[in-house]
Amino acid sequence: MGTPTSRRAGRIHRREPVGWELRPRIDTPDELWFGPGDGAERETSLEYRRRVLLAKEYCAECPLALRRHCLEQALQFPADEQYGVVAGLDHYERRALLTRRGARPAAAGKESAA
Predict the structure, then answer these.
(1) What is the DSSP letter of 67?
(2) Backbone torsions φ then ψ of 7, nearest 5 degrees
(3) Tens digits of per-residue pLDDT, 80-107?
(4) Of 79, 80, 68, 82, which Cα lies nearest the Cα of 111?
(5) Residue 100 belongs to what H/E stretch?
(6) Residue spans of beta strands (DSSP E) within 37-105
(7) How far apart are CA 70 and CA 32, in angstroms?
(8) Is residue 3 part of a domain?
C-alpha cells in the first residue's frame, strides 16, 4: 500500500491515511461498534443484529481506502481476538476471512489491500 509502518509488539501499525481524521461518524460511541460495555445490560439478539447492521451502514460511508486501512489493522490480530464491527465486517466475518487465509495476519493485511 506504500504507507509507512512501524512495529509494535509483533504487529505492524500502518500510519493512518490522509483524511483519516475527517472520516464520517468519527464521534460515534464505541458501543455501536463493540456492543454494550462492562456493567451494561446485555443486548438481545434482535438488538445485536440491528446494531451490527447500523455499524456496517456507517462503515459503508467511509472511503474505500479508509475501510481497507481499518481492515488491515484488524487483521493483525488472530481470529480469537476479533471483536466488533470493523471495516464493514463483523467479528464472525473477519474470523472466517482469517481462517480462509490460513490465519497468517501479515499476509492477510497485504491481501486485503488488493
Answers:
(1) H
(2) -100, 135
(3) 899 999 999 999 999 999 998 885 544 4
(4) 68
(5) helix 91-100
(6) none
(7) 16
(8) no
**Length reported for the chain:** 114
For the entire predicted model, the pTM comes to 0.69
- CA dist 107 and 72 (Å) reads 10
Q: Say whether 27 sits in a helix, a strand or coil.
A: coil
Domain for residue 52, yes or no?
yes
pLDDT confidence of residue 5 = 47
Residues 13, 6: contact at Cβ < 8 Å? yes
For residue 11, give the nearest of 67, 66, 75 by alpha carbon.
Answer: 75
Cell numbers at residue 98, please? 482469517
Residue carrying C-alpha cell 474505500: 64
- Domain for residue 2, yes or no? no
Which amino acid is present at 69? H
The C-alpha cell 490465519 sits at 103
Residue 62 lies in a domain: yes
Residue numbers of the domain that contains 49: 27-112
Write phi, then psi, for 14 (nearest 5 degrees). Answer: -90, 135
Higher pLDDT, 5 or 57: 57
Three cell numbers, residue 62: 467511509
